[in-house]
Specification:
12 helices; AKR; NADP_OxRdtase_dom; two-stranded antiparallel sheet; Aldo/keto reductase; NAD(P)_OxRdtase_dom_sf; TIM Barrel; 336 residues; 16% strand
Length: 336
């Protein structure tokens, strides 16, 4: 098990913003961002049907469809089908994520974690992505932030539907690996405890970050490392608040989060460190973390991410974070 042997580096491209997350991104800007990522050497791209009701996959496919398929790694997600019917994107029930993709395509989004739905989702994604194969497939959002108290029902639907299909595809060599794509720790922990399911990795968004890592650090990350199940770090900037933005977990950051970022920023300035670099490198420092996939919506952001992952950070900075109780005392840091 594990996916890191297939990954071409420790920095990938998260394409949720290409689905017009938060704003209507001009087509030329979106395509230029993907092209820049390619030109800068990024070769792992992650997407999902949910991102703008297929818009992210379509835009990604427009660029990657002209690239040599053997030179990049591609992942998408299952659990939602994109219908030809239309609806008002602003009225979609997105749980805690509100109107996240209200600027996306108007196509109706239908939840479906069944075996048939999984096959259909993959077939549809291949067409939108303009490709003949996928490398990794993640089961999307079987977690509390979308399902609330009913999340275990959604998990059970995926356990009996999507899980065995993806495991069979992996065993047949059709895909290289599978797992979950979620914003909560508990579904991945539950999957790691199943006897019949053997995921190769999972995308964990926003839960092993500079601002929020205690729960994942306690059990999930050590168990994943022990079992050889690699964690893809999604949302390393927690929706942008540690990269100069104002959002935390898809909403306006609370005063407590803003204050925490200010405290981290003050220490970063004292040590000549950018907060973006600190956030990205912290998430990657754990042995279970295989790759980070920050989202990019503008060509300049790609260069910033590459600079952040390579920026030298003195050990004294991490010591200061620990002394000020801004990171867990037992959290791995890059210099150790």
């Amino acid at each position: 098990m594990g996916i890191r042997s297939f990954l071409p580096g420790r920095l990938g491209f998260g394409s949720a913003p290409l689905g017009n997350m938060y704003r209507a991104i001009p087509e030329e800007e979106a395509l230029a961002t993907v092209e820049t990522a390619w030109n800068e050497g990024i070769r792992y791209f992650d997407t999902a049907p949910f991102y703008g009701a297929g818009l992210s996959e379509i835009r990604l496919g427009q660029v990657l469809g002209s690239k040599p398929r053997d030179e990049f790694v591609l992942s998408t997600k299952v659990g939602r089908l994109i219908s030809d019917e239309t609806e008002d994107p602003a009225d979609r029930d997105l749980g805690e994520k509100g109107g996240l993709f209200e600027h996306g395509r108007p196509n109706k989004i239908v939840y479906d974690y069944s075996a048939d739905g999984t096959h259909r989702s993959i077939d549809d994604s291949l067409k939108r992505l303009n490709t003949d194969r996928l490398d990794f497939v993640w089961v999307h959002d079987i977690s509390q932030d979308f399902w609330g108290d009913r999340w275990l029902e959604a998990f059970d639907q995926a356990r009996t539907g999507a899980f065995p299909i993806l495991q069979d595809l992996r065993d047949q060599g059709v895909i290289k690996g599978w797992g979950l794509g979620v914003n909560r720790v508990e579904p991945i922990e539950l999957t790691l405890g199943l006897q019949e399911a053997q995921p190769d990795g999972s995308v964990l968004a926003g839960r092993y970050t500079l601002l929020d890592h205690e729960r994942a650090l306690q059990r999930l990350m050590p168990t994943a490392a022990e079992q050889g199940v690699d964690i893809v770090i999604g949302g390393p900037y927690n929706s942008g608040v540690t990269a100069g933005g104002t959002h935390f977990e898809y909403q306006q950051a609370s005063p407590a989060i803003v204050d925490k970022v200010k405290r981290i920023t003050a220490l970063a300035e004292q040590h000549g460190v950018s907060v973006k670099a600190a956030a990205l490198q912290f998430s990657l420092a754990h042995p279970a973390a295989a790759v980070a996939i920050p989202g990019s919506s503008h060509p300049s952001h790609v260069a910033e991410d590459l600079a952040a992952v390579n920026e030298p950070i003195p050990a004294a900075f991490w010591t200061a974070l620990r002394e000020n109780e801004l990171i867990a005392p037992n959290a791995p840091v890059p210099t150790e």
